[in-house]
Amino acid sequence: MAERIPPRSGVAFELRAGQHLTVIDPEGCQVADLLAYNRADIGEVLSNGRTLDYEETIRLTTGNRLWSNRSNVLLTIEQDTVGCHDFLLTPCSTDTFLHFYPDKPVVPGCFGNLAAALAPYGITADMIPVAFNCFMNVPVGADGKISVLPPLSSAGDRIVLKAEMDLIIGLTACSAYASNGGSFRPIDYMVEDLV
């Protein structure tokens, strides 16, 4: 049974080594920011730099691994029905809204939601790195310019990740307008013991 993250909110939970996390876009066109920390030592955290370096691509999908700042594999992508995710841009925050959306209400964004959800595990705001942004569509032009376009995900699309060590996971339903095509929807997730 899937758990639901309401629009513009976030959760944190433990994921044991060998368990599978399925992140689902139930309605389509919705981003989910994903973080992972080593359960035994929260100083070890998901790293976009290490991941992009070792995987030699910015288009992470089935078969790719997500690495830590200490060069250990945290998660392996085992299934991906979209094939378009972002690992370049930082979680949206109050500063994001002030910068990009000065005419919109300021909300905590993924950064604030992740900080609140992860606080019980001793993880502070300064320990939040770039998240793996499931379903986010960030094309890079030939001139190096980046754009944020609506996700390519449709209702029911998913990504399945296997934990390679005991982890603490932070997961959101993203709050930024451009990232989600201008509106906000829930994200579903499941934790399963799969063989």
First and last CA, distance: 18 Å
Q: What portion of residues belong to β-strands?
A: 25-35%
Please give the largest β-sheet.
6 strands, antiparallel
Which parts are unreliable, with pLDDT below 50 for 5 consecutive residues or more? none
* Mean residue pLDDT: 97
Strand order of the largest sheet: 1-11-3-9-7-6
Number-wise, the strands total: 11
State the helicity in percent bands. Answer: 10-25%
Order of helices and strands: EEEEEHEEHHEEEE
Shape: globular
Q: Which structural category fits the helices and strands?
A: alpha+beta
Radius of gyration: 15 Å
Separate helix tally: 3
Overview features:
five-stranded antiparallel β-sheet, 13% helix, 195 residues, 31% strand, alpha+beta, 11 strands, six-stranded antiparallel β-sheet, single chain, globular
Structure description:
By secondary structure, this protein is α+β, with helices and mostly antiparallel strands. The chain contains 3 helices and 11 strands; from the N terminus they run βββββαββααββββ. It has a 6-stranded antiparallel sheet with strand order 1-11-3-9-7-6. Strands 2, 4, 5, 8 and 10 form a 5-stranded antiparallel sheet that branches. Strand 4 and strand 5 form a beta hairpin. The longest helix is centred in the middle third of the chain and has 10 residues. The protein is globular and about 45 Å long. The mean pLDDT is 97.
